[in-house]
Description:
It is built from 5 helices and 5 strands; from the N terminus they run E-H-E-E-E-H-H-E-H-H. The chain is α/β, with parallel strands linked by helices.
Amino acid sequence: MKCNNVRTLVFGVGNRLRGDDGFGSCFAEALKRCGIECCDVIIVETMHVYAIDYVKGYDVIIILDVVLEDAPPGTILVEEINPSGIRDSELVDEFKTVTAHYFGPHHLIILAYKLGYFSGKAYLLGIVPANLHPQQHVISATLRDSLPRYYEAFYELASKFSCKVPPLPCIEKVFEQVCIV
């Protein structure tokens, strides 16, 4: 497989013990097992500041995660994260939302950019969860039903950077195997 020179990272985030929170990590696991090409895949259960080491050297980062938005569950959002637009004077406000339990995709990209670890393009492919209950090892029916639309959004985004995305039937089959559905 011929790949271009753009180093692309697919970064799947999600705790599979908290219901829909595991969606991003499950999707990334399915991509990896189905053989995505010309992209690297990293899967983490939770996002912490240590994840900054994973983004070094990449030109493009696509983060797969749930997003807490005022939108119906299953809503898919694609957002470009532009860290160059954050002035140093705005950093304090940006990082006020960081807690011992929350360090989000925006924080990771902004910090990596400000420290000189990353200067490329970053995207968040988010999906609004229906269920984030602890000890809920099941992805909700709402998000399972959204899988084909999420796949299409991912395919469109990742293809721009020459990622060779495996077919949807493989993703669906492996998704069901790696996440209790």
